[in-house]
Amino acid sequence: MDGAHFRVEISEHGMSSSREIVFHYHRTSRDYTDVGLWIWNACEGQAAIAHELLTDEMDAFGAVFRVDPADWRCSPEAGGRLGFTPRVRQSWDYKDGADRFWTPSDGWEFWIVEGDARLYTKAPDVRPRIRKAFLDGLSRIVLGLSHPLLVDDLAKLKLRIESPDGPCPPVTRIIPYDISSSKTWVIEGRMDEPLGTRPRPLVAHLDGYLPAPIVPREVMLDADLFGTEKPLGALYKKEQTTFRFFSPPARELKVVLYDGPTGPSGREEIALENVGRGVWEAVVQGDLAGRHYMLSVAFADGVFGPEFLDPHATNTTGLDGRARITDLRAADPPGFRPLKRPASVRSIVDAVIYEVHVRDFTISPDSGVSQRGKYLGFVEEGTRFIDDYEIATGLDHLKEMGVTHLQILPVQCFDNDESAPEYNWGYMTAFFNSPEGWYASDVRGDARVRELKQLIRGVHEAGMGVILDTVYNHTGEQNTFEQLCPNYYHRQRPDGTLWNGSGCGTEVRSEAPMVRKFILDSCRFWVEEYGVDGFRFDLMGLMDLETLLEIREELMLIHPGILLYGEPWTGGAASGIHHVTDSGAVRGTGLAAFNDRYRNVLKGEPDGGGAGYVQSGAGRDAVMRGIAGSIDDWTVGPPDTINYATCHDNLCLWDKLAVSSQEDARERVKMHLLTFALLAVSQGVLFLHGGEEMLRTKKGHHNSYNAGDEFNKYLWAWKKKNKREVDFHRGMIAIRRAHPMFRLRTAAEVRRRLKFINDGLPAPETIVFTLDGRSLGGESWAEAVVLVNPHRDSLKFVLPGRGQWHVYVFGADADTQPLTAVSGELDVPGRSIALLAR
């Protein structure tokens, strides 16, 4: 665009052509203090430009926001795309609903109502209404209101329940849900007689408010009256397929079969039977492999809604497609079973975890991979950098590095159009049991199933395990839980609005019996069907601890070497979980947690210019606690802590050092290597963000989840340019794996074998510690000493004890074989460690 500013002009005949988007925003309180519209450029391949738009303009509907796409470098002519969401006080705690997106084809004027996910193209009716009405017990309903009531006025109001299927008991009492205020947004209506459990249409009528249908509250469906232990979804056998679903509110439920992923051919409706406890079931004889299906539900009003995808689907077929009935075992690649898992680590501390995104890893043409960005390209063997055949790329590079496990960013089917995809990391999961089709050679058929299994087989044959990065804490907008069983799978406030502790619009109600069952069944499915070796739980803080412990108990019986860990925090906004599953909650349970405290002290907060130990030498004591496995901070022992500097979120390490240090590139390289060296000699689990062994950069992008290949792809030229740094990372990994003294199991063992020396240091910020390897199983070193110099200049360290030491790490060199031998004292280069042993 040329930057010219165009306005929308409204006349009695409609809207004139323009380049300015107008958003009208209505709040029921009519309070627009500190209300803003957060807007960002959502165009693929462009840097994220995001900021708050404030306004003083008002109309009869509410606040008016005028948006010039050019201000966000968004060109409508080039298919521009903007993301937007209203919020209050410039805080994500007061975000109104899920992220929304605009493209030129959507129009140029919109109306938004607080608490309403819809985007209106005409001004909607905003008269007082019952926003949501819940059956909260057999003789109690709860109403969430768009406009508050005075508590003193409740006695004057009339509330009644109506049903076309017959009379309903009268509401005899109306009480405020919150008695601590003179106003209430939520009221309870209580009856002296029960309504009954049979699904039937119910409508709540309240004086002065538009009516609303009454739906069962999630807690009612948690009762022992509902649920099943049997598997759910489309359960294929060659001779028959069983369809089984959980939907207590349903009055009727049907499966609609089709021949293909699109089109009407072969359409056949199968009515499911209510077999009790809210479970619906049908058995269809014959071999249905290769056919496709959708679901449709009629609730209390008896009217079937639109067809939708099964949330349990194991093989989706694209945004415009249907669920495919698939013989999953027939999609096994040759030699896949019996599962050939790599040798299990004895403890999670033995793992070296490498985080990688399927597309980023091979999409660059210089990777030498033929099927770039795909499952199959990920495991091509013998690939080389196109400008130097001596430099291995792809899977061969990972084998060179010596890592034990790959943590693969989400490959469960996520929100996107797989036929015309826009880049995404995949943290908005739509269908938890189907592989993502973007990485497959074909979005139809069984390619996604077969080719993900080929990826896993290839990684296993290369001697590494596969950890799935999973997002069971919230759902994507394409997910269909709500279509199948409304108001059950997500946490809700008393007024029926959704909790949003994920910052992504929803929270999965993991503590609910049938939600817990879904998550357990899903994890078991990925272990048994695909042979995965672990799970990383995104925003683990939003998953209840009991569910996580049940996952661990069940999966350990199937795969004793499985690795389970996650983020011990929420997305920052207010959450509906009763007890956040933080690092204190999981310590000592066998579930590990990312150690953000150690991360932050090493290199500063994830984004911005704040410096840490490797830039400034600050935080020595906190670094020492991290080296010791955080046993004097928050862990019970080293297996609790995932030690890392960066991951996919926030600035990668090279970019963080660039904004937090005024030093030149040569010094930043030293800081980079010092960071990894400290992690490699620390007790706990070693974690590496993929590409950082090559000094990866994302050009300063701190949240590249949808920024495209330009910011996210590996450039294998980095490996050639930074060969010494790659060798250093490989050497540190090899030393760690060869010596159990860096992988101690318990706090008691750490206290016995790891000793810090605080006397005779060359500078207050330096660190010296020894490790005792005597009588430690598998350890070939009797003792080792680590010297840490965070200063710019070299410093002279006095070596402990008498006699000769072999040097294994010095400056930018690291090897399992001695580099040299010294005694007495050693000059350690600036911003580096030295590791000596004998």
Fold and architecture overview:
By secondary structure, this protein is α+β, with helices and mostly antiparallel strands. The chain has 18 helices and 45 strands. The chain has an 8-stranded parallel beta barrel with strand order 25-28-31-32-33-34-35-36. Strand 41 (804-810) and strand 42 (813-814) form a beta hairpin. Helix 10 (596-603) crosses helix 12 (620-627). The longest helix has 18 residues, at 513-530. The termini are far apart. Mean pLDDT is 93; it is low at 1-17.
Number-wise, the strands total 45
Number of helices: 18
| Portion of residues within helices | 10-25%
Stretches where pLDDT falls below 50 for ≥5 residues?
1-17
Spatial order of strands in the largest sheet: 25-28-31-32-33-34-35-36
What share of the residues does DSSP label as strand, in percent? 25-35%
Distance between the termini: 67 Å
Basic shape: globular
Mean of pLDDT = 93
Q: What is the makeup of the main sheet?
A: 8 strands, parallel, barrel
Radius of gyration: 29 Å
Q: Which structural class do you get from the secondary structure elements?
A: alpha+beta
